């Protein structure tokens, strides 16, 4: 079980279509089980500063097997993961747009999107995750109950 280049291209194509539909150019990244970049695109007009953010959202979603939206909710002051964004040399993203990719219930990679509002990034990432596994977008919570 793994994220192939073909899988990554399918995820990116679906996410890119959603970004075009909502009129928001984005950076879209897909990482493998080890959090390594498999593929990335920067849509015409997407912010340069969002390249690293999209890649790091994908890394974060894989590193913790949780959506970055849910991690963000749990990393606010007074919450259990407050300060987590300072770990991993600052690679941890705590705002929406990163979603783990699953095969047969096991996390094998992640998609990360950056370029719009948190809501836009999340919807684009959900479209990408659904192209990998239609059930992925429905399983936003961490399997261990975090988030």
TrEMBL record:
It holds the Pfam family HbpS-like. Residues 113-147 are annotated as: Disordered. InterPro entries: GlcG_carb_metab_protein, PduO/GlcC-like, PduO/GlcC-like_sf. Coiled coil: none annotated. Residues 137-147 have a biased composition (Basic residues). This is Heme-binding protein. It comes from Paracoccus cavernae.
